[in-house]
Structures are given as structure tokens and as C-alpha cells.
Amino acid sequence: MTPIHLGNNSDATSTSSKSSSNHTQDRNQWPHGFLPKEQFPAFIDLLNQSFDEVIGPRVDQGAIVYDAIRSASELPHGWTDVQSPGVYRLERKSSIDDSRIDPSCEEEYFGYNVGPHSWKKYLFPPLTTLMKSKKTTDGWQMEMTAEPIRRRVLLGVRACELAAIAIQDKVFLTSGTVDPIYQTRRNHLLIIAVNCTQAASTCFCTSMNSGPECRSGFDLAMTELSDGFLVEVGSDAGQTIFESLKLRTVTTDEIDRGRTRRARAVDQITKRMNTDGIRDRLLSQLENPHWNDIASRCLSCANCTMVCPTCFCSSVDEVHELTDDEIVRQRRWDSCFNVDISHLSGGPVRDTIRSRYRQWLTHKLATWIDQFDTSGCVGCGRCITWCPVGIDLTKEVATLCEESS
Amino acid sequence: MTIAPSLSPVPQQGSWQSHPAEIVSILEEIETVSTYRMRFRDPELARSYRFKAGQFNMLYVPGCGEVAISHSGPPDSDTGDFLHTIRVVGRVTEAIRALEVGETLGVRGPFGNPWPLETYRGRGFDVFLVAGGLGLAPLRPVVYQLLKERDHYGRIGLLIGARSPSMLLYSEEIRAWESSGIEIQRTVDRADRDWHGSVGTVPLLIDRLRGVRLDRTAMLVCGPEVMMHYSAQSAIRLGLDPSAIWVSMERNMQCGFGHCGHCQWGSLFLCKDGPVVRWDSAFSKMRVRDL
Question: How many CB pairs under 8 A join A and B?
Fold first, then answer.
């Protein structure tokens, strides 16, 4: 196969492209096709030839993380994850006895749930240089630094993660001020979504109306079957790739099998959060003594905010080059759990874990709605899994709002 | 490729670009507080730069960091100069104090919502400014503007509180304002032997106000949070509507455009939804400890 060219996307002008509206149109207008498993490695090769970088899932240090994928052999074929509050473990699908596993699909490429990474790190990088200052005889000279444009494929984006990207689009692009770093990276992205065919015990996307099925915000969406992938087009760019793959049309049987597999994910989601009126319910509980109870367990380690696909707090550090005459400003991810984030000359505003956890939870689920007209939570469950003491926000919300969960 | 959603009508670039500005002069005001006159090095920027009373800049000392400082000089200056009155309270302000006339630092701005003068101008409103300590600095541009547009307002009052007589900011200039028709009242927490004025906190000055036209008065308050809280309560006891009272909030600010998350106060990003906040919005939040 020859590399695919998707037209000139070397600048940010594509924001006005007509394809932006396509995601909301009737999905059935877009073609569907079948990609046999044997052809999948060649598909990954084609993506690598056509883009600067293909980012996808791979096993690293006992977890499935997102990193550069050069060939299909690097994908977590046959692996799955077992998750619960404070627990994450990788297993070979063939070696575990779990009713959640579809026996017909033990050797999947995408047979896992979400891991500690989110795609956020490719759009809102954890560490990035903003500006350089140089001291001259005529005082300081300051100039912004620009990063080279990288055309990236995000491979294996889940429905909850598409929702998270849409939320960060609101934060960094459409809430009044544009983040140029985010914008440039966002405009050079090909998103290949993969529908979930299973769920972790920590998943609750159905409560947040963000999944598990991918409905919009992708170029291509795939559903993995035992013998291949159902491929669905979601944009003009996706259409270009779809056409170059010359896929055969899907059979009724394949459509049914895909539907059945996607339904497995829905059936496996047991965690719930009641989001009816959640903004008002939570904001009426700012003085609830239960915040103290959470604070007695929370370590304020910031893990939940680091793994959260929507958290966006950052801080800027001064980095000295060899001398004091050249200074670089670097933006890094920060967290509302770090005491310094509310630092004032008189001391931090939120100097207790109680106030910091309350800030995180009420921002995520309540005041975020005021700010961005959407919840800040997509129900991916990462904050539950990666909390070292297993705090489960859905349970805390239920207790705070005194529900019989 | 998947396309980011279309942008809002007037997208602003969230710029971290700081621009070198020269310190033109330094005036020592009171102990640990000095006013810096600054001018952008870039002549075009110096010419075009405008701000409104109540807005702030991010001042940057390379290698040390940035700090949010309110404008304390006249808006619409035709020289291109702007003023910042700065108290030495930490690392960055300490580094600014070490700078001398002719040296440069970085400036980004202006940021934030200004004081709501446009709401009251030309409608016969009385305006009372209430300042605690260094809180007078962000209100000084208001004084300049009110004096410049004197005919557009009714009675203008300025209530000032300071810890001690020697901590009263801009005292020379205030005498000039007084003779320009601004009612000035001062109070100190601790008097000295030469002090013949009021002793006590600023809200007491509000309690003593007479002849306030309740439906035609706006109050702009700036100072420590507790001072603003009690001042607003005094004003409400007097009969002012909460929607006529405005406070300027201080929080850690880093980006200035609502992206870094530091300055959140409930649903507000105080860098862009503030720092000036109407009391009916501020009240419920100020009641919650550590919000």
C-alpha cells in the first residue's frame, strides 16, 4: 500500500473544514467495511508510512500505556486488565477464568479497558516549553518557542476518551481563549476509535452518557471481532483512508456479531453515578462532615488528577540554561491536590486535604458545568483504579448526597 | 483529520508571550511598597497598550517567575507609561525590588474584568471607594477616571483604612484629591501621637456614612478578604443592594486567561471572571472556608 496523503494540514486553517460537522450527521450515511485480521498489520504499517507518529496501546511496566507503535506486534495482543478501586493488574486473556471474557475472542488487540495514560498527554503535553528569555546589553529579549508540527494517529481511542477530548476542546479552544499548543496538535490528529467490547468494574461511562459506543469525534471507528474489524467512517479524512484500504462491505452476520460484542460492554458496566441535578446536589453539600471522612483517607497524592483525561491544571517553572542569562519557561501539569497551587503571600488558600478534595470533586462534577457547559467527568474510572487507597468518587458522591446506592 | 470544534467568534490567543518593559522610575511609597513606572520597549506596543481600571498585568522576572499586579496608574495615559504599586511579599516581588531604573522585566496583559464604571457613568450615580491597605492601589485608576469624568457622577467618596498612619498609601496625592471634590475619610488600626483621625477598621467608616442615596450608589471595595467581607456587610446594613457592591479578589494567578486552574473560586476563574466580582456572586463563596 502506498502512503495516504490527506491534503495540506500544515496549519491551523483546517478548523473551518466542512468535516467538523460530519460527526453529528447520521452515522449510517458513512460507509462501513470489514478489515480482516490478516490485513491489520499492513494497516498499521500504512499509518506509520502516512503519519509522523502512530500512538497506540502497548504493554510497559505492567500496564497498558499509550506510546509510539511501529508495528501491530507491539500492540497488547491477548492482554487484558483487571481493575478495581486501587487495583490494576495485567493478565493474559487465555489464562484467566472470568465470565467477562468472550471465549471467542481471547486473542484480541484491543481486549483491555483504559489504563493509566490518557490521550491528554499528546494534546496538552505534561511538560512543554512556552517562552525563552535572553539577557542582552539592552535588557531582556523574550520570544515564544514553537514546536515542530507532528501529524499523529491516535489508535484505540475509547468512547469515554473521545468525550474527554471533546471536553478539553472546550477548555482549550472554545471557552474564549485559544491555547495555540493544543490547537496545533489537535488540528494534526487522526483519531481511530475502538469500541469497547468489555468493561472494567471501575467503568461508569453509561452514567456519564459518554459510552461505551463511539458515536462521534472520530475519523474511523473499529469494532474488533475474532476474525477482523468492523470499520466505520466518521470524517472526510477517515473516508480517504477507508477508500485506500479497499475493504469489502460487511455482512449481516458481522454486523450482528459487532452489535453483540458492543452489547457485552454495556452489560458489564455495573457502576453507577446518579447525575440528575448533581451540580446543585453537590454544591449544597460544601459543609458536609463527610468531606472530613474522605480527607482522612485521601493522601492528596494527585494521582487521580494525573490519570484524569480532562484535568487541565498546570504551573509554569523557570528553567535556567547554563547561565542566568538564558531562561526558559516550562509549563507542566499541576494538580488541585498540590498545596502550592493556591499559594498566596499569606499562605495557601486550600491548606487542608478536605478543602482540596472538595475542590477537585465539586469542580469535576459541578462547577465544571458552569464553566464549560459539560461535566468534567466521562466515567472512565481511572481515578478510582489509580487511587492508592481506592477512593471511589461514585461512592463518595452517593454518601455526600445521601443516596441509598 | 478530526477537526477541533469551530472557534468562538473572537478567539483570543492565550498568550504566554511576555514583552520587555523598562522601569522608567521608582517611587518609594511606604515601607516595603514602591510604585514603578514602566514602558514597553517595543514602541508600537507602548503606543497601543491600553487597560481599564481594575485590570492587572503579569510581571515577569526571568529566572524568578511571574506575579499578578494590578494597575495603579491612570488608564488612557497618552505617554504609554503604566504604573504598578508593589509590596515586597515574596520571591518575585523581592526580585522586582532589586531592579533599578533602566532595567527591564517582562509584562503580559492586561487581564481580568475591570471595575464596572461603565455601568454607572452618566447616570448620576454616587460612587464610594473603600480601600484597605494596599487595596488602594487597584482603586487609584478609578479615582483618576472619576476625576477625569467628574460630571458623569454624583457624590464621590473614598474611605481608606491602614494599619498605622505611616502605612497610609499615596497620602500626598490624596490631599490633592480631597481638594478636587472627593470626600476622603481615613482610619487606622493603630494611631500614633500625631494622628487626630479615626481609629478602627474601614467598615466603621461605612457605618458612619450619612446621606447615602440607596438606589443611586455604587460601592467598590478592595483590600484583604475579611475587610471586604465586613465592608460589604456594613454597606448592606446601610441599605445598599448587594448588586451595587463590588469587590476585587486575590488568588494565585498564573496564566491570566482561565487555562491553568490556579485562581478558581467556585465556578469562577478569577483571572478572567474576576478579579472584580459583584457582591451577590461573591457572598456565597466567601462564606465557605477554604473554597
Answer: 183
- pLDDT for position A95: 79
Would you tell me the crossing angle of helices A393-400 and A353-362 to the nearest 10 degrees? 100
How far is it, in rounded angstroms, from Cα A257 to Cα A261?
A: 6
- Interface confidence, given as ipTM, is 0.91
Residue boundaries of the structural domains of chain A: 25-268, 278-400
Cβ-count burial of B198 within 10 angstroms (0-12 exposed, 13-18 middle, 19+ buried)? middle
At A322, list the grid cell: 547554563
The closest of B175, B74, B170, B183 to B126, measured between CA atoms, is B183
- CB-CB contact of A266 with A379 (8 Å): no
Burial state string for A379-392 with b = 16 or more CB within 10 A and e = fewer than 16: bbbbbbbbbeeebb
Using alpha carbons, list the distances in angstroms from residue A91 to A57, A66, A79, A201, A202.
15, 18, 6, 15, 17
Alpha helices (H) along A329-405: 353-362, 368-372, 382-385, 393-400
Q: How far is residue A248's CA from residue A182's CA, in Å, rounded to a whole number?
A: 37
Phi, psi for residue A326 in degrees, rounded to 5 = -130, 115
Instruction: Kindly state the percentage of chain B with pLDDT values over 90.
Output: 91
Q: What is the mean pLDDT of chain B?
A: 93
Asked if pLDDT for residue A10 goes beyond 60, the answer is no
Q: Could B18 and A142 be called an inter-chain contact, meaning their C-beta atoms sit closer than 8 Å?
A: yes
Q: Which member of A15, A142, A344 has the closest CB to residue B3?
A: A15
pLDDT digits (tens, 9 = 90+) for A154-200: 999 999 999 999 999 999 999 889 999 999 999 999 999 999 999 99
* pLDDT for residue B232 is more than 90: yes
**C-alpha grid cell, residue B176:** 490633592
Contact A107, A77 (CB under 8 A): yes
The CA angle A322-A328-A330, to the nearest 5 degrees, is: 130
Residue B9 per-residue DSSP state: S
Contact indicator for A114, A158 with CB cutoff of 8 Å: yes
Residue A96 has pLDDT above 90, yes or no: no
Which of A4, A25, A131, A358 best tests the B interface by mutation, with the highest count of B CBs <10 A?
A131
In the prediction, which pLDDT does A402 show? 84
User: Strand, helix or coil at B39?
Assistant: strand
- The reported pLDDT for the residue numbered A93 is 84
pLDDT mean over A238-250: 93
At residue A7, the pLDDT reads: 53
CA-to-CA distance for B239 and A356, rounded, in angstroms?
36
Closest-CA residue in chain B for A23?
B2
Determine the Cα–Cα distance for residues A376 and A208; give it in Å rounded to an integer: 10
- CB pairs under 8 A, 24+ apart, for A251-256? A251/A34, A254/A34, A254/A225, A254/A228, A254/A230, A255/A32, A255/A230
Does A18 have pLDDT greater than 50? no
Element (H, E) at A243: helix A236-245
Domains and CATH numbers, chain B: 19-111 (2.40.30.10), 117-286 (3.40.50.80)
Query: What is the reported pTM?
Result: 0.92
Q: How confident is the model at residue A15 (pLDDT cuts 50, 70, 90)?
A: very low
Nearest to A366 by CA among A404, A397, A334: A397
Grid cell, residue A400, equals 455526600
CA-based nearest distance A143→chain B, Å: 7
Q: Could B2 and A218 be called an inter-chain contact, meaning their C-beta atoms sit closer than 8 Å?
A: yes
